[in-house]
Write a structure and sequence with these properties.
Elements: H1 3-16, H2 24-43, H3 45-50, H4 52-56, E1 61-70, E2 76-87, E3 93-99, H5 105-121, E4 128-133, H6 142-156, E5 165-168, H7 175-189, H8 212-227, E6 236-240, H9 244-255, E7 259-265, E8 268-271, H10 278-286, E9 302-305, E10 316-319, H11 328-336, E11 341-343, H12 352-360, E12 364-366, H13 368-371, H14 374-387, H15 394-413, H16 428-447
Parallel strand pairs: 3-4, 3-5, 6-7, 6-10, 10-11, 11-12
Antiparallel strand pairs: 1-2, 2-4, 7-8, 8-9
Bound molecules: glutamic acid.
Length: about 450
C-alpha cells in the first residue's frame, strides 16, 4: 500500500471507528473498501463534497425486534431478530435472512455493507439489506420451524414489500422457511406479491434460483479464464464445501469439461484424482456427507480425514464453504501446487494474509461480491417474473445469468487502468470495490443530500 493510500485510509477509519467501536467484521470490510476507493473519491470533487463513502458506512436504518414462540414441548422461547436496511439507492432493499445461533447485529451490518457493493455489481435495480435471528434451526421439528417463521414475520412483515424490502434465504433459511415467511407476509399485507425471493416454485419462486450462485460462479470463473486466453476444459478444480454453492459449481464445471477433484466437509476432504462424475456427486450428497461411509470404489473418490482441498494440485480454486476457511498455509499450498485462478463462492473465505500471499504469487482472485453475485442476480430475475406475473424457463434464466456474470466481468475489466496487478492482470478485488462504489456514488450524488 502506498503512503498516500495508507494515510487516507487511516484518517478515514479514525473518523468512522468511534461510531462502530468493537464491530470487527464491519470495520475490516469498511477498511478494505476505503483502501480501494478513497483515491477515487478524492479525485472527484462531487464525490468528496457529498462524503459518499462516509454516508455508505451508515445503514439507512436497523430494525431490531424480539420473537416469542412456543416449542413442541409447550415452552415459551425468546429470540432476537434484526433487519439492516442498508441502502435503497439503486432499488428496493435486498439481501438474505440467516438464522444462526449467536448471530449479532455487528455481523449483519458487515454483511449488509458488503451486499450494497455486490448488488450494485449485478447491474440490476437492487438496494441492499441483510437480516436474521439468533435462532438455531438444527434439531427443530418442521412444526417448530413453521411457528418460528410466522412469529419472525409477525414483526418483520410490516417493513417488507416488493418495492420496499425483499429478503431471501441465507444460512439456515431455505425454500421451506421462505415459503412459511412469504405466506405470513401475504396474509398481513392482504395482497399476493414477491416480497421474498428464493420461494418454493409452488409459491411463485423462480426456476434456477437454487442453482444460481454455483452456476454464476462458474460463469464468472470462465470469463476470468477466457481473459487469460484459457478455458475450463481439462483444468483441475478444487472446490471446498458440499452445500448448495459447492454442488452446483461442481455440476456446471463438469459440464464445461473440467476435472472437479474435491469437495469437503468439516471433517475432511473427498478427493477424486480423475475428477468427480455426476454419479459420484449424487452419492456424496445422498450420504449427507457422512465421513464414516466409505465411497464405493467404482466412483473413484477417497475420503481424507482432517485434510482440506488446497494441497491437491489444482489449477483453479473455488472456496465455497465459509468465512476465513482458507488461511496462509493453505494459500502457500495452493500457489506451490500451481494454482493460478481463485474465485470465491463463499463470502470472505480467505484470511487477510492468505489473500496477500496469493496476490504476491500472481494468482488471479475474484472476490465473493463479484463471483458469488449470481444468487442475488437470479433473485432480481425472480422479482421481475413476480412483477410481470410471468415464469421463464431454466434455459432462459441460465442464459440471462450468464449475460449478467459476463457483463459484471466486463465492468471490472473496464477498471483495469487503475486496478491492475504487478504482472499487468486485472486486480479483481480492487476493481469490484471501485466499480460498485462509482455506481453507488453516482446515484447518491444525483439524489442530493438526503
Ligand atoms: N443470501 C444471498 C447473498 O448473500 C442471496 C441474497 C438475495 O438473493 O437477496 O447474496
Amino acid at each position: 500500500m502506498s503512503d498516500r493510500i495508507e494515510a487516507l485510509q487511516t484518517a478515514f477509519m479514525d473518523e468512522i471507528i468511534p461510531g462502530h467501536d468493537g464491530e470487527t467484521e464491519f470495520l475490516r470490510a469498511v477498511a478494505d473498501v476505503a483502501r480501494d476507493v478513497l483515491t477515487v473519491e478524492k479525485a472527484h470533487s462531487t464525490y468528496t463534497d457529498a462524503r459518499v463513502l462516509a454516508r455508505l458506512c451508515e445503514a439507512d436504518r436497523i430494525i431490531a425486534f424480539r420473537i416469542v414462540w412456543r416449542d413442541d414441548r409447550g415452552a415459551v422461547q425468546i429470540n432476537r431478530g434484526w433487519r439492516v436496511q442498508h441502502s435503497n439507492l439503486l432499488g428496493p432493499y435486498k439481501g438474505g435472512l440467516r438464522w444462526v445461533p449467536g448471530l449479532t447485529r455487528s455481523v449483519l451490518k458487515f454483511l449488509a455493507f458488503e451486499q450494497a457493493f455486490k448488488n450494485a455489481l449485478t447491474g440490476l435495480p437492487l438496494g441492499a439489506a441483510k437480516g436474521g435471528a439468533d435462532f438455531d434451526p438444527a434439531g427443530r421439528s418442521e412444526a417448530e420451524i413453521e411457528r418460528f417463521a410466522h412469529a419472525f414475520m409477525a414483526e418483520l412483515a410490516a417493513h417488507l414489500g416488493p418495492d420496499r424490502d425483499v429478503p431471501a434465504g441465507d444460512i439456515g433459511v431455505g425454500a421451506r422457511e421462505v415459503g412459511f415467511m412469504v405466506r405470513a407476509w401475504m396474509q398481513q399485507a392482504r395482497i399476493w406479491g414477491g416480497a421474498i425471493t428464493g420461494k418454493p416454485l409452488a409459491l411463485g419462486g423462480s426456476p434456477l434460483r437454487n442453482e444460481a450462485t454455483g452456476f454464476g460462479l462458474i460463469h464468472f470463473a470462465e470469463a476470468m479464464l477466457n481473459e487469460a486466453g484459457e478455458e475450463f476444459e481439462g483444468k483441475r478444480i478444487a472446490i471446498s464445501g458440499r452445500g448448495n454453492v459447492a454442488e452446483h459449481a461442481a455440476r456446471k464445471a463438469i459440464l464445461r469439461g473440467a476435472k472437479v477433484i474435491s469437495l469437503s466437509g468439516r471433517k475432511g476432504v473427498w478427493h477424486a484424482p480423475d475428477g468427480f462424475t455426476h454419479n459420484a456427486l449424487d452419492w456424496l450428497l445422498e450420504t449427507g456427507g457422512d465421513a464414516a461411509v466409505t465411497p464405493p470404489q467404482a466412483l473413484g473418490v477417497e475420503f481424507r480425514a482432517g485434510h482440506k482441498p488446497w494441497a491437491l494440485g489444482a489449477d483453479v480454486a473455488l472456496p465455497c464453504a465459509t468465512q476465513n476457511e482458507l488461511a496462509l498455509d493453505d494459500a502457500k499450498a495452493l500457489a506451490d501446487g500451481g494454482c493460478r485462478f481463485l474465485a470465491e463462492g463463499a463470502n470472505m473465505p480467505l484470511t487477510g494474509d492468505a489473500q496477500a500471499h496469493l496476490t504476491r504469487a500472481g494468482v488471479a482472485q475474484a472476490p465473493g461480491k463479484a463471483a458469488n453475485a449470481g444468487g442475488v442476480a437470479v433473485s432480481g430475475l425472480e422479482m421481475q417474473q413476480n412483477a410481470t406475473f410471468d415464469r421463464w424457463s431454466r434455459d432462459t434464466l441460465d442464459h440471462r445469468l450468464k449475460a449478467i456474470m459476463c457483463d459484471l466481468h466486463a465492468r471490472l475489466k473496464a477498471e483495469r487502468a487503475q486496478c491492475c496487478t504487478a504482472t499487468g492482470g486485472i486486480d479483481y478485488r480492487r476493481a469490484a470495490n471501485v466499480a460498485a462504489y462509482r455506481k453507488l456514488a453516482d446515484a447518491m450524488v444525483a439524489g442530493g443530500v438526503i
